[in-house]
């Protein structure tokens, strides 16, 4: 397509009330600006992002994830406003699609009606029962006459329900001709991009409105908008995976980051949260389990398990209240109430309830290695670094401080003592039986 994209992201985002720049607020695991860049990449490879507030921070975030994005720093002191943002932007193609950094829900699909229309300017609109906060669009005979910003509206214009969604497709020569003609004589003393419409209209240019879906084109201005957008994003993410063969029980209670990948047939029970670069293949994740940056293959986890970053789990059963961190578990069972951190555990091994890898000595983290077919009794503490070879039994309640050779038993217990009738003496009560 002969189209360049400019993404406006120089605004301050005051209404977010945040130290984090608005376009870096995450939605489903990614800063919101990621989504609009991904959409822009489906349109063209000539993409410019306009920055000003926190420019370096935003530029770094984008450059870390995308190649070939150009940046333009807005001369905000002299030319504030959406019109100022576009001044002197360099574009390669004959049409310029203007997108906003705070519109994470715009998809390539939802842009198609805009890209297929012919006109000097194609602009997006939708109708809102409560149009407050948006520029009102005055339309006559299916052509746009003007856009009036809320702060500049007359009482009658304020009642107009058709609003400017803020995405436009301009012929490049229209932008080049009209941008220098903008003035800042308005309530906000800004250079409004929207004033180009009025100027172009006077010269008889064709300005075509396109009604777009509200859901995709609503901008994020507050943390309330952010939460609403995330709900929509979550529905999209989960619908996609369900269509790919993932069963989800009560999907409205499940949270999945947009970076998570499922493979094969998976079942996800209610209340599960999966974050980051997790990959789940042919596994059953039971209710209220939390998974972060982990790989899980041919396994079941939960209910109420926590799988933390760096865990690589295959052919394994993980039961309730088990926490796993940075561990490789291959073909094992850990059914109840355990912590496995910095561990490597091999096939056929059973980890008893209440087993803890004591991986931290207060300064450093250490590894626990456990071989094949090992039986770890309940309530075992493994003081790392420690290695347990194949075919070992560790008795319940043992504190393992030394490496254990193949085929051995390890037991460390205080010998059991029995003091008869101690209870009755201690509480000064008679024995009911005698
Ligand atoms: C703008 C439109 C309004 C429309 C609304 C839709 C103008 C004058 N008004 O208003 O008609 O209904 O979007 O959401 O265009 N930005 C810059 N540099 C600036 C100012 C803003 O890059 O100097 C960027 C912002 O980061 C944001 C976008 O432009 O991504 C829109 O800015 P915003 O301040 O949200 O404009 P609105 O007042 O909402
Ligand atoms: Mg806005």
What does this structure look like?
This protein is of the alpha/beta class. Helix content is 20%, strand content 31%. The protein folds into 2 domains: 3-211, Spore Coat Polysaccharide Biosynthesis Protein SpsA, Chain A (Alpha-Beta Complex); 223-410, Hexapeptide repeat proteins (UDP N-Acetylglucosamine Acyltransferase, domain 1, 3 Solenoid), CATH 2.160.10.10. The strands form 6 sheets. Strands 12, 13, 15, 16, 18, 19, 21, 22, 24, 26, 28, 31, 34 and 36 form a 14-stranded parallel sheet that branches. β2 and β3 (30-31) form a beta hairpin. The chain binds uridine-diphosphate-N-acetylglucosamine (UD1) and magnesium ion (MG). Magnesium ion binds at residues 219, 221.
Summarize the structure.
20% of the residues lie in helices and 31% in strands.
């Amino acid at each position: 397509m002969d189209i360049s994209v400019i993404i406006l992201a120089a605004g301050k985002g005051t209404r977010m009330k945040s130290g984090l720049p608005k376009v870096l607020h995450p939605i489903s695991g990614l800063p919101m600006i990621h989504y609009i860049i991904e959409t822009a990449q489906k349109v063209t490879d000539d993409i410019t992002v306009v920055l000003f507030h926190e420019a370096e921070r935003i530029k770094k975030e984008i450059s870390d994830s995308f190649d070939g994005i150009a940046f333009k720093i807005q001369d905000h002191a002299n030319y504030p406003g959406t019109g100022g943002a576009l001044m002197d932007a360099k574009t390669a193609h004959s049409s310029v699609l203007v997108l906003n950094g705070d519109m994470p829900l715009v998809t390539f699909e939802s842009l198609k009606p805009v890209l297929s229309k012919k006109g000097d300017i194609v602009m997006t609109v939708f109708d809102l029962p409560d149009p407050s906060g948006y520029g009102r669009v005055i339309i006559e005979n299916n052509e746009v006459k003007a856009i009036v910003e809320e702060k500049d509206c007359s009482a009658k214009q304020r009642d107009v329900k058709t609003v400017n969604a803020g995405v436009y497709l301009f012929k490049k020569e229209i932008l080049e001709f009209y941008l220098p003609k903008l003035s800042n004589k308005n309530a906000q003393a800004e250079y409004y991009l929207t004033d180009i419409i009025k100027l172009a209209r006077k010269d008889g240019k064709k300005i075509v409105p396109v009604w777009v879906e509200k859901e995709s084109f609503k901008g994020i201005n507050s943390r309330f908008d952010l939460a609403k957008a995330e709900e929509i994003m979550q529905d999209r993410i989960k619908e996609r995976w369900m269509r790919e063969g993932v069963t989800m029980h009560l999907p409205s209670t499940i949270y999945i980051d947009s970076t998570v990948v499922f493979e094969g047939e998976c079942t996800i029970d209610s209340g599960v949260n999966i974050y980051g670069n997790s990959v789940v293949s042919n596994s059953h994740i039971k209710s209220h389990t939390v998974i972060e940056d982990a790989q899980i293959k041919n396994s079941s986890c939960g209910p109420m398990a926590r799988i933390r970053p760096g865990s690589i789990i295959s052919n394994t059963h993980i039961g309730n209240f088990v926490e796993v961190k940075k561990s490789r578990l291959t073909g094992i069972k850990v059914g109840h109430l355990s912590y496995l951190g910095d561990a490597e555990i091999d096939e056929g091994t059973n980890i008893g309830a209440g087993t803890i890898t004591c991986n931290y000595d207060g300064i450093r983290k250490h590894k626990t290695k456990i071989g094949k077919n090992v039986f770890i009794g309940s309530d075992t503490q493994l003081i790392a670094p420690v290695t347990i070879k194949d075919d070992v039994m560790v008795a319940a309640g043992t504190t393992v401080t030394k490496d254990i050779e193949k085929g051995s038993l390890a037991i460390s217990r205080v010998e059991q003592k029995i003091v008869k009738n101690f209870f009755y003496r201690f509480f000064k009560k008679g024995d009911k039986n005698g």
